Amino acid sequence: MTPKVLCAGDQALAVEFSSRIDASVNARVIALAKSLGDDPLPGVRETVPSYRSLLVCYDPEAVRGAALAEAVQRRAAAISDAASASRLWRVPLLFGGSAGLDLEDLARMKSLSVEELIALFVSPEYRVYMIGFAPGFAYLGGLPALLHTPRLPTPRQRLEAGAVGIGGEQANINSVAGPSGWRFVGRTPLRLFDPARPEPFLLAAGDAVRFVPVSAAEAADLDAAVAAGETIVESEIR
Questions:
Q1: CA distances from 188 to 65, 93, 108, 118, 128 (A)
Q2: In degrees rounded to 5, what are phi and psi of residue 184?
């Protein structure tokens, strides 16, 4: 798979691996980002992985874009297809409530009971394809086909941080409060974005997520633990 390297302004390159979106393409994007992080090319400032491409930001006073494009393409060609270690997060999820505004409507749309929809939603292992839109906002692949649903025609003005929703073929976890047209089923007490942490973003592209249903009482206990600065989940390295 030979990627295309395109100019993205005068201080960045876009490395496009494919026109399709799937886990293997995304894995190569993340592998190139890791390679450039572990062994940076001269002039590279930052990389930003997306579903099928990698944005490489560079210092134009340190390296010319054309020379960097050639070096990046060589590096990409040397990326191994071997699976690398990944992190699995078990994310507590309270369905319904003030954040799960669309849970019952979605169940009716899909001719499911609320319990059946919940069981279906938590059944897969989701892949974090990318972080974007807002600090720490996680785009998740792996949503069961039956639950694929277009976004709302009119976005709501505010959804709380931690809200978990559906948009098209994807699921998401909100990192900060804000407007959204996604259809939301519940919320997690986890803080995906906390600027006071050494690593402000909890999740990263390439991580895996399994949702674990919790009761309102359990969610309240977890909320209190998070507010007290406690760590309520740890990732598993696989």
A1: 42, 5, 23, 14, 16
A2: -105, 140
How many domains is the chain partitioned into structurally? 2
Per the domain annotation, does 82 fall within a domain?
A: no
pLDDT tens profile 39-76:
999 999 999 999 999 999 999 999 999 999 999 999 99
Structural domain contains residue 63: yes
Per-residue pLDDT tens digits for 208-238: 999 999 999 999 999 999 999 999 998 998 8
Tell me, what amino acid is at 53?
S
Q: Verify that 37 and 69 share a domain, yes or no.
A: yes
Which residue among 18, 51, 77 closes a domain? 77
Sign (positive/negative) of CA torsion 205, 210, 213, 217?
negative
Bridge-based pairing state of the strands 87-95 and 126-131? unpaired
pTM value is: 0.90
Q: How many helices (H) and strands (E) does the chain have?
A: 5, 14
Domain around 215 = 87-237
